[in-house]
Design a protein that fits this description.
- The chain is an alpha/beta fold.
- It has two domains: 179 residues, no CATH class; 298 residues, Pyrimidine Nucleoside Phosphorylase, Chain A, domain 2.
- 41% of the residues lie in helices and 13% in strands.
- The strands form three sheets. The chain has a seven-stranded mixed sheet with strand order 7-6-5-9-10-11-12, with helices on both faces. Strands 1-3-2 form a three-stranded antiparallel sheet.
- Helix 12 links the parallel strand 5 and strand 6.
- Helix 8 packs across helix 9, helix 12 packs across helix 23 and helix 20 crosses helix 21.
- It starts with a strand and ends in a 5-residue tail after the last helix.
- The N terminus is likely disordered.
């Protein structure tokens, strides 16, 4: 085995790993960066794990990435950028009944002036305001006027600005945008028949307009109505902002409108289940236990993201793990599992059937599937979601997926941030019929619990490390509707209670390279904050899900430590990188 040494400034870790990627691309073999110390200098040992197939045989489409060490570089350059002025306003107004921050007069005048100049083609030195932005912004304004409580309805400044600009806007905006802004002709104070008479073009758009009228009034839809709209509209055309079947403005208004109205259970279920069979029935892996990890798809921008390394640990003792996500997605555009795996040379284009094969492999036991391969219809919305700005209902529903099924027990783990979404997530998990479900308020809304002490001035609401879930207690038939009796639980995990020393979470600040460095060093057995977080999250998840051999929490942590200290977890991660490039359909 060849080994190469690159000296590295320990504070600037992206440089040597960037060289590693270039080395892999040029010599067609894997180079895995592992940090070590020789004397007082820090090095990356680049191990040639194995020869890979020639690049052209891997079917991998390398993205247009200027600096693969940073998460921001994974944004697809094909996507047109949104107008920043209107996007900043969307951040304030395209949110819930209590979180919305009305614009002041200066802000409102600036936004509407930008929209007017863009519609006239007179906007200089700025991106044009997209159709999707128009739909999201005016949908938010309409719902606030029709259904929000007084504190988050229009401010006097917004009303003054709209009175000034609407007589000009109505002459230049498309009819679908005018409909969104004033569907019944009752908001703007100018008698117009466009909104009340608008029906859309074609069957799909007519169905969408009918549903949108209810949403813009602050109302809710049935399960079949939501699924009907989604299946009419998706997928959007690859490489384009929208679909020829419907207006981008209308669909953007629909998605952000449903989130602002706070989705009902039946609406969330419609989003969650709509494309389960898009590629046919899910393959069934011959494994005794399978945990589906539902990390927020938009990644981490500040702190160490541990789930990929946790999956490698848990696979060592028979707890197979399936991760799913995307390469890059707004609003955060942070570090994702796909970015890390791509950076290390793994195949990130696996189909669900190929993932099943890796789950069954006794030398691997975990897998990652991109939404691009499993739910292409939903993946087609990434460009549109950037222009909507705020998270649509899909951001919740996509975390609760079963891309591969298991012969044995199944569990789902998902992260959340905003209080009130823990119960809807658990509802979706129960709807999936899994044996156990767990939601975690980890750092940045991810599933990663921390060993950091809770600050005395922490934000209100549920604390970081809050967990809620259910687990099976009886597999006998007729114990419940689906034959499984479950017990519910909730707990705030204090890592110090389990012997972990309080430590600050390592910062990564969008550095994919830094996140990989921390994870690999921990899997090599290097003790510290990253090691502790991997052990904490592996053992605690085992315990809370009721996994075999984890009833004693101390034993669960010891088992996770042994998986790392023996080198087994690192070996499985390296095996995954190698074998993922050799799988066949």
């Amino acid at each position: 085995m060849q080994a190469l040494l690159y000296p590295v400034d320990p504070l600037i870790s992206s440089q040597p790993i960037a060289k590693t990627r270039a080395l892999w691309n040029s010599q067609n073999s894997f180079r895995i960066p592992i940090k070590c110390w020789i004397g007082k200098r820090s090095y990356f040992v680049i191990n040639a794990v194995s020869d890979s197939a020639p690049i052209e045989e891997l079917r991998l489409q390398e993205p247009d990435i200027k600096n693969p060490a940073l998460s921001t570089s994974y944004r697809n350059s094909v996507f047109p950028k949104p107008n920043q002025t209107v996007l900043d306003a969307q951040t304030k107004v395209c949110t819930g009944p209590t979180q919305t921050k009305p614009l002041n007069e200066e802000q409102a005048f600036k936004v509407l002036d930008t929209i007017l100049r863009s519609a006239k083609g007179e906007l200089k030195d700025e991106e044009p305001v997209s159709k999707a932005q128009l739909g999201a912004f005016f949908s938010a304004m309409t719902i606030r006027a029709n259904a929000f409580p007084e504190p988050t309805q229009w401010s006097e400044g917004e009303r003054h600005a709209m009175n000034h600009y609407w007589p000009q806007l109505i002459r230049v905006l498309p009819e679908d945008t005018i409909f969104i802004a004033d569907p019944e002709g009752s908001i703007m104070g100018i008698g117009s028949s466009i909104g009340p008479q608008f029906v859309g073009n074609g069957t799909a758009e007519m169905r969408l307009v009918g549903a949108l009228r209810e949403v813009l009034a602050g109302g809710h839809l049935g399960y079949e109505e939501v699924q009907g709209v989604l299946k009419d509209v998706l997928p959007f055309k690859v490489g384009e902002m929208g679909s020829s079947r419907v207006s981008e403005s209308l669909f953007s208004a629909f998605m952000i409108g449903q989130r602002m109205n706070r989705e009902t259970d039946r609406e969330l279920k419609a989003y969650c289940l709509a494309f389960d069979d898009e590629l046919g029935p899910a393959p069934v892996a011959d494994v005794n236990s399978l945990t589906h990890y539902g990390e927020p798809y938009d990644g981490n921008t500040r702190y160490f993201r541990s789930t990929l390394f946790v999956a490698a640990v848990r696979s060592c003792y028979g707890e197979s793990c399936l991760l799913h996500g995307v390469d890059w997605i707004p609003p955060k555009g942070g570090i994702t599992e796909e970015q890390m795996l791509m950076f290390m040379g793994a195949n990130t284009h696996l189909t669900p059937s190929q993932a099943k094969w890796l789950l069954e492999d006794h030398e691997v036991g975990f897998a990652y599937v991109s939404q691009r391969e499993a739910r292409p219809s939903l993946y087609s919305l990434i460009g549109l979601r950037e222009h909507i700005k705020k998270r649509p209902p899909l951001a919740t529903a996509e975390k609760v997926q079963q891309i591969v099924r298991a012969r044995g027990k199944e569990a789902i783990v998902a992260g959340f941030y905003h209080e009130g979404y823990e119960e809807p997530l658990l509802m979706l998990m129960r709807r999936r019929g899994v044996h156990a479900g767990l939601v975690v308020k980890g750092e940045e809304g991810a599933v990663s619990m921390t060993t950091k002490l809770r600050s005395g001035n922490a934000s209100k609401g549920l604390p970081v490390n809050y967990c809620s879930g259910f687990r099976s207690v009886n597999l006998a038939p007729a114990c419940a509707v689906d034959g499984v009796s479950r017990e519910s639980f909730n707990i705030e995990v204090n890592a110090r209670d389990y012997g972990f020393a309080p430590t600050d979470t390592p910062r990564t600040d969008r550095s994919v390279a830094r996140n990989i460095e921390l994870g690999l060093a921990a899997l090599r057995g290097e003790k510290g904050p990253a090691y502790d977080r991997i052990v904490l999250n592996a053992g605690m998840v085992d315990h809370l899900l009721g996994s075999d051999g984890a009833q004693d929490i101390s034993a669960a942590f010891d088992r996770a430590r042994e998986a790392i200290d023996s080198g087994n977890a690192l070996r499985r991660l390296l095996n995954y990188i190698k074998i993922s490039n050799k799988v066949i359909s």
